[in-house]
Each structure stands twice: as structure tokens, then as C-alpha cells.
């Protein structure tokens, strides 16, 4: 019965019906590099306000602490755990649904592990295996097991059933520091540079993210900075149409120039946010790093505070490899936030714990599906609740 309802909702999702919208959209003509920059004036939901706020991108204390300093925050994203209804399903339900694979794996394995068992070394070894095979990683697994052992000792716990609760508690503790939602600050436009390897989900995440910002009454301009693959711009334009947002592109050309154009246009049109796509694959890793570092420099030349956010998109399916991608991109650019995609397609949702332990970086968003509403602001408690 629920499957049936979900299907209906999916059918009616905004992705499936952009046709009516299309007519209204002034699709930009492809520009030659010498052509003057044309920016469609149309930008939906445009409250035109200049913001003067500060950038904040360090690892944050848990959310309570955030609430203590609302004064300097003029524009803030809605708290992630709000039970905003989306169709028949709340946000928490959607995340639960998205994490079904990981949850099924963990629930089955942990239930059989703890039910009626003695707390002994064999049990800890099995728990270690379960965590490692969920991509929690060696370092986070060791940390979790040590904290659980310490709690068992301290509280004289004898019943193995209680370990599940302890594991949840320790996981939330571990993940809370990287729960750090993106806050729009600084002089507009707020520039988000989106980076990541090919196929990680950058373009899709940009499409979903645009929707999140539009829902908050922000105006958005997208820059098609992946000029390496011909199809990349078209794919981005489809997302632009779905959102009724202009995509700045050039028929051929230098990604830095495209993004430079976009930022200047956004300035002229008082647009709140520029989201810049970038290439994920170039002939060599050196080419890629050279290009994205150049893009960052150019962005900074045309807007001193920008990029305000360098968002690395990681595919959860790549497991431990995601950590090495994070290290490489961070070294080159200084990553300020993460979007972890495709959590719906993997049983390895534990990779978030590995990130939190090995390379703690603000986890802004999680991707739990392919449709426009499937990007969620990360919340540690909600995530762990959806896991088991
Ligand atoms: N299931 C699922 N698929 C996703 C998600 N995010 C992206 N994808 C898919 O991953 C593929 C690659 O995404 P794309 O945005 O083109 O990656 P890019 O090369 O980094 O721009 C596409 O087929 C997307 O639909 C997600 O959260 N869940
Ligand atoms: Mg792409």
C-alpha cells in the first residue's frame, strides 16, 4: 500500500513534469566565446536584498551551540530536523527510505549479533566486522568499539541487547561535529564552487540544491563550468529548466571564463547565489587540479569573498576511496563542505563515520535519491535514527 502511494508521489514529482514550465523559460542561446554575455533577466523568487554577513566554514560545535549566536546570521537555512511535510512523507521518512539498504544490513546483522548473546571478545570481533563491512573504516570502528567497551565497563552493562543503544549514542557523538549546515553569509552573490570526480553527482546535486535555495526565496544562477564534456552543459540546462533558473554557458571555452561571467552577471542582477559546476575528469589528475585551482583564483578575483563555499561531492558507493578524494581536493582547494550522494544505492552508509573520524569536514547535504527533492541537510541524530 505504501509502495503504491510512493509510486504515485514519484509520478507527480516535479521532475516528471517540466513540460509546462518549459514554455515559460527563455532558454539562453549558446554563445560563442566572442559573443556578448547574455543573461536572461528572468529569475524566479527574487527578493533583492544585499547581505553583509560573514563566512563560517570551520567544523562547528553541535547545533545547540549554533543557536546561541543567531545575531550575525541574517540568512540561515531552516534547521534540518524540521518535520516539513513533503507529500505524505516527512523528511525523516524520506531519509529512512533512502537509507533502507544500509539499515537492512545493519538491522539484520546487529539483531542477530546481540539477541541473547554474552558480552565477550567474540561478540566484539563480530561487531567490528559488521562496522568495517559498512565502510565505517578502521579508525572510526576502533574508536566506536573502544568507547562502547568503556561504557560497558563504567556502567557495568551485562546485557548484550544494550550495546545497540550504546552504538547509536556513540555514532551520534561521532557524527555531531560534522553536522554543520551551510549558512549563507557575506556580500552577495554567495558563490558555491562544486567539485568532485566524474559521476560523483555534482550536476544532480546542483539541480537539487537550486531547488532548496528557491524554496527559501533565494535567487540562483548556475554556471556550467564543466566544459570538458559536451553533454555536461546540456544536463545542467535540464536542471536549470526544471528549476526555471538561468544557466550561464559558453559553446566552447574556458570554465574560469564561464564562471567569471556568471558571477559578474549575478552581481549586475542582484542574484543571491551562484552555483558553479566544474569538470570531474580531465586527461590527468594534474590537469584537473590545475584547472580547479585556477577557477578558484579567478572566482576570487571577481568577488573578494568568493568562493564562499567549496563543496566537494562524494559518492557514498566509493567507500574508503571517498576519503582519499577528500584529501586530494582538500589539499588543492581547501574544501569547506561536503555533499555525500547516492546513500540510497548503497549498504555502506557507514562511510560518514569514517569521514567524521579521519577527515572531519562539514557535511552539508546527503543525497538519498535521484529526484529533485532527494537532497537533505545532514542531521546526525536523524541519520543515525534512520540507520537502525
Ligand atoms: N540513486 C542516486 N543517484 C544519484 C544521486 N546523485 C546523483 N545520482 C546519479 O548519479 C549519476 C551521476 O550524476 P551526475 O550529477 O551526472 O555526476 P557528475 O559527473 O559529478 O556531475 C546520475 O545518473 C545521477 O542521477 C543520489 O543521491 N542517489
Ligand atoms: Mg556533471
TrEMBL record:
Pfam families: SRP54, SRP54_N
Membrane topology according to the record: Peripheral membrane protein
EC number: 3.6.5.4
CDD domains documented for this protein: FtsY (cd17874)
Keyword Chloroplast part of the UniProt annotation: no
Biological process annotations from GO: SRP-dependent cotranslational protein targeting to membrane
Residues that bind GTP: 196-203, 277-281, 341-344
Domain of life: Bacteria
Disordered: region residues: 13-85
Reactions accelerated catalytically: GTP + H2O = GDP + phosphate + H(+)
Annotated GO MF terms: GTP binding; GTPase activity; signal recognition particle binding
Subcellular location, record wording: Cell membrane; Cytoplasm
SUPFAM superfamilies with a match to the protein in the record: Domain of the SRP/SRP receptor G-proteins (SSF47364), P-loop containing nucleoside triphosphate hydrolases (SSF52540)
GO cellular component: cytoplasm; plasma membrane
Domain SRP54-type proteins GTP-binding: 362-375
Family per record: Belongs to the GTP-binding SRP family. FtsY subfamily.
NCBIfam families: ftsY
Assembly information from the UniProt record: Part of the signal recognition particle protein translocation system, which is composed of SRP and FtsY. SRP is a ribonucleoprotein composed of Ffh and a 4.5S RNA molecule.
Function noted in UniProt: Involved in targeting and insertion of nascent membrane proteins into the cytoplasmic membrane. Acts as a receptor for the complex formed by the signal recognition particle (SRP) and the ribosome-nascent chain (RNC). Interaction with SRP-RNC leads to the transfer of the RNC complex to the Sec translocase for insertion into the membrane, the hydrolysis of GTP by both Ffh and FtsY, and the dissociation of the SRP-FtsY complex into the individual components.
Protein name listed in UniProt: Signal recognition particle receptor FtsY
Organism listed in the record: Candidatus Methylopumilus planktonicus
